[in-house]
Amino acid sequence: MNKFDTPISDRIQKIKEKRAAINKNLRLNFERNRILTEYYRTHETEYPVLKRAGYLYDWCTKREINIEDDDIFLGDAGPQCRTVHFDIEQTSRAWIKGCFGDTDERFRAAWQVPGSVWVDDEDRKWVLEAADFWVGRDIGATARGLFPPEFFERFPEGMDLTNLTGSYPGHFNPNYERAVTVGFGGVRRIAVEKLDAIVKHTTTDNVRSELFYRALIKVCDGMILMSKRYAEGCRKKAETAATPERRAELLKMADSCDWIIEHPARNLWEGFQTVFFYQYLLTADGTHWADSPGLIDSFLGPLLENDIKTGALTHEQAQELCDAFLLHIGDQIIMFPKPDNNQLIEAHKNGKTMFDLQGGMQNIAAGMLITLGGQKRDGSGDYNLATEMLLLSYYRLRVAEPSLALRINKHTPARIWEIAIASSKRSGGMPQFNNDDVIIQTMLDKGVTLEDARRYAVFGCVEPAISGMEWSMASNCGSFGGGAGLLGVLQSCINGTVKKLYEYETFDELKAELEKQIKSSLAYANRLSHFAAFVFNTAWPILSASVMTEGCLESGRDVSWGGAKYNGMGSMFNTVGTVTDSLMVIKKLCFDDKTVSKRELYDALQTNWEGKELLRQQILNEVPLYGNDYDEPDSIMTWITSLWADTFNNLPGVNNGTMNCGVLDLYWTGTGKFTGPTPDGRKAGDPLSPSADPYPNAVKNGPLSYVKSVAKLPWDKMRCGGAINLRFDANSVRGDEATSKVRELIESYFKMGGIQFHFTVADTEVMRAAQKNPQDYQDLIVRIAGFSAYFTHLPFDDQENYIARYELAV
Amino acid sequence: MEYKNSAAHIYDIQGYAVHDGPGIRTTVYTKGCPLRCLWCHSPESQSYDFELGYLPIKCLGTELCQNACVNACPEGAISADEPIKALDGSGMIQKAKIDRAKCTGCLKCAEACMPKALYASGRDTTVDEVYDRVIKDRGFFQNGGGITISGGEAMAQFGFTLNLAKRLKDGGIHICLDTTGFAPAEAFEEILPYVDLFLYDIKHMDSDTHKKLTGVPNELILENARFLAGRGGALQIRVPVIPKLTDSETNLRRTAEFCASLGEAVKLVQLLPYHKTGRMKYDRLGWRYKLTNVEPPDDAFMLKTLEMFQNTGLNCQLY
Question: Tell me: the pLDDT tens digits for B245-273?
């Protein structure tokens, strides 16, 4: 028994059980889509930013106010707890027609069987009609109206821009701090002042700002009303409360809801509840995948500590609130991506669900991440009782979502280190550890001020951005690379699209071609990123973000018009191990030693190593590969990753911001299935190397050499993050002494320049047992990449890949 | 400092060896040991000579390799085994089969084996080569970590161990020496200035029993422990707790008393409960594992033993 093992309350246990039960009876949320469609149908000519505000106001004032019997926090983004969200305006007509316009029998097999995400007949009928309304009016329609001709030439048939602008950008840290400490009332007051000033001096240039402020005021009005509607709901619910205690609690909640949203939160419960109300708004606006509440302990800690000081809360009550917060913040669920009926029917037949189809991203969640700890604006440490209690919640509850990041610097208290390592041992990879020293420098390199740089928070998986100030839209626009990927470029340079391996006279010639191709593919991807951002700028403002993000209120511009104080667009590259090893093999065997001819290696790749097993074994056993602290492969790795990062980071940023390179992969097993053989000895269909980590089989010199090789990656250029991901066997991390050794390992990696460190403790034996008896291992959590997942929910291939991952055993 | 670039036989170098002393350590495992402990979890460490190891899972079948190992063997000790299904589903294969009775340990098959299913259980090296390898890890040694020289019995290749210790000491590296204590006192005297901490095993207090369990008596071992303690050496004593063999109340009590009698020199005593993780290593060498009827001790017994050690005033932990 660990010293952090304290029992969780009955109430929390019940909420945990309730969530597990709902997971078997999930419903698709149509409420938001009905209100949205109705508003857009009746206000067709309204200017986009006003139309969006009108919809959000309607949503606040018309949505169902649902207060459940035992809940500690109120409401949800949908009409019931844990509904699954999707956005109808996200170019979803083809998907809707495919799923809901299918035969009755197939529809029912996909959406009305146990384990499915339930859709009523009535909702089915409605959404089919609504889909017709959105033809020519959805986000894809805006994109088709402005994208450059060469794009359509490159992707002629069937490319409906779904993957490009199919969803809202997401991937940012909304300014929850402003929502909690200033409130929508405070924001509204400033918006009114700004509006008054503009009205006195109207010019063509500031008309758009005037419309923006009017929209902002409308959103604030809606939110203030929604909070009061919850107050009313609490009072009504109190009338039928089962116990006098619950009745008193509901009445107290009612008083709080009358106050919060308009005004700053006065205590911890109000702070948490404000975070939730704002989260619901963000979800209703657009299903922002992977947004994150920023430095939450920093702005809630003072409320918590004050409650303890005044005696308003006992330690146990405060811990219970933190536990309840952690469970409820994970109640936001986004469908990502959208599966078709064939996939769903097949999954249901095998006892699987929609969430098992997501190639490793199978958590029933919204890709959210919480950041704890860090520094205040003046550089002093920012750790408080909320940091500790929220960390303890992760330790106690063993949940795989939302993800958790802990910031590490010289101020990090020993006790926080201790709880964090204990939690990560128990709840695979929660938290990930972030190196302030290097990450703050990467923020400065983006042109951020030092005071602001100290306030970075991680969102998504590993991506740092300035909390509440940066419009970072790391993924959905940015990662659409027009086909740009490190391994793809390498393949095109050796397998024929650009040139064939045997056409190069020297290794330097191959390097030069790679450089040329990397530059041109990134430049093209960058051009498309600007078009993608312009789609939102033109017709799809993101008011839920703009209402709080620092800079928008001040400048009178939506985030999509460049209103945020900082603007960034991130993109991730991956397969570092596979690419490095492939280049190393080519260099050593074909150019340096000349023991294998270029033609022989090229032919082996064309035939998937058929009849070339001995050559493959020679590669696997005799070529020095990445991950062993060998200078030669490691310098190839440093060369190509620097080239990629420098090229990317120096391209023009969207909204005059910066382009931010990172390194991350979530799908190396899945992508591997569709990737042909590679010169590192990998066969077609085998998994690729994960993110920045070496290929597991290539690791021959043990963990310290592994860590050192990965530390050589130019992490100071990875403004969008990237982690090393290790697995320990239980024996290596047993006892207090081992805890301090894990800390030393992390600190050593950070001193060598690494920025993020994830680890899981899971014995191969335990995972084999979990495969056999999954019901006994429901809370076995493993770190995948930027997120953690329940091992037993992983598809079999991913389980195998995880077990094959290099294990730090001693 | 003067040192010789002595040669040695080693079988492994491991980073993040968290059980081999304080902090993060990289451990060099030398080959050869005068003891033959029944519970030995590193059978490949016992002999100074290299032996033939075999990991059948890596064997691709003799046909694919054009009988490379079969043809390499001058004794005819390797043949093709019965056909079985290949793991990758590519069809039937016949893996290599070793007739250990015929094998002389010439290792020619290991040289010929491309996938390294057949391998030598160690390699030749020198002080300089080992130094260049382990010094790369020094970035991890900031909080008390360093290099551990282990075995086998590291003192059995004394020239190498002494010179490696000298060279590392010169580089400012913290050095642990993991030893059975079964080596001449003069050797310990010579190496003492270069060792920061001895990881020192006390396996049994009764010399006859010690001989039965390990093949050697214990007088020299106990004497060397007293010698090192008296000459300012720092000791971390390790006591294997093997059910039925070393776990008698008398033996454990006498061990605790002996450790306590060494005074300040003993920085820590670690009680090591028996574990079975070394068993599969025996298969690879084609050896028989002897302790088939011994199970790991239960937690309650280990806690009781811990308490007994602590009551003598020793800083003691379960490991």
Answer: 999 999 999 999 999 999 999 999 999 99
Task: Classify strands B52-54 and B174-179 as parallel, antiparallel or unpaired.
Answer: unpaired
Chain A residue closest in CA terms to B58 = A617
Residue B276 has a pLDDT of 79
Interface test with A, best of B10, B129, B140, B319 (most A CBs within 10 A): B140
Contact yes or no for B16 and A704 at CB 8 A: yes
Helix (H, G, I), strand (E, B) or coil at B295: coil
- A239's enclosing H/E stretch is helix A207-239
Side chain identity at residue A665, one-letter code: D
CA B25 to chain A, closest CA, distance in angstroms equals 9
Minimal Cα distance from B116: which residue of A? A621
Chain mean pLDDT for chain A: 90
Which residue of B16, B24, B114 is in closest CB contact with A614? B114
Amino acid, single-letter form, for residue A100 = F
Instruction: Residue A398: name the closest of A791, A803, A796, A59 by CA.
Output: A791
Tell me which residues of chain B, numbers 42 to 71, contact chain A at a CB-CB cutoff of 8 Å.
Answer: 60, 64-65
Q: What is the token pair recorded at B29?
A: 């495992």
- Cα separation, A463 vs A456, in Å, equals 10
Across A332-477, where does the E strand assignment appear? 333-334, 369-372, 403-408, 432-435, 456-459, 463-466, 470-471
Q: Tell whether the model's pLDDT for residue A161 goes beyond 70.
A: no
CA A741, A744, A745: angle at the middle one, nearest 5? Answer: 90
User: Do the chains contact at B15 and A741, CB–CB below 8 Å?
Assistant: no
pLDDT in tens, B44-95: 999 999 999 998 888 989 998 889 999 999 999 999 999 998 877 778 999 9
Contact check, Cβ <8 Å, A704/B24: yes
Q: What letter represents residue A346's amino acid?
A: E
**Which chain A positions have a beta carbon within 8 Å of B140's beta carbon?**
704, 707, 744-745, 748
pTM for this predicted structure: 0.92
B294 touches chain A (CB under 8 A): no
Q: Which residues contact B67 (CB under 8 A, 6 or more apart)?
A: B80
Calculated CA dihedral for residues A625, A627, A629, A632, nearest 10 degrees: 30
- Quickly tell me which residue has 């205690």 as its tokens: A245
Residue B23 falls in which region: left (phi positive, over 0), alpha (psi -120 to 50) or beta: left
Domains of chain B: 7-49+123-318 (3.20.20.70), 52-120 (3.30.70.20)
Residues of B in contact with A701 (CB under 8 A): 13, 15
Rounded Cα distance between B133 and B144, Å, is 19
CA–CA separation, B156 and B154 (whole Å): 5
Q: Is B238 helix (H, G, I), strand (E, B) or coil?
A: strand
Asked if the C-beta of B311 comes within 8 angstroms of chain A's C-beta atoms, the answer is: no
Is the CA virtual torsion A73, A76, A79, A84 positive or negative?
negative
Question: What ipTM was predicted for this assembly?
Answer: 0.90
Enter the tokens of residue A359.
């190639």
d(CA A755, CA A753): 6
Chain A residue at shortest CA distance from B65? A614
Minimal C-alpha gap between B62 and chain A (Å): 12
Let me know the angle formed at the C-alpha of A480 by A478 and A485, rounded to the nearest 5 degrees: 105
d(CA A650, CA A644): 10
Query: Is residue A759 very low, low, confident or very high in pLDDT (cuts 50, 70, 90)?
Result: confident
Contact B18 A747 (CB under 8 A): no
Return the residue of A nearest to B140 by Cα. Answer: A748
Q: Do A747 and B142 touch (CB under 8 A)?
A: yes
**Contact status of B14 with chain A (Cβ, < 8 Å):** yes
Tokens standing for residue A363: 């958590």
Tell me, yes or no, if B114 comes closer than 8 A to chain A by beta carbon. yes
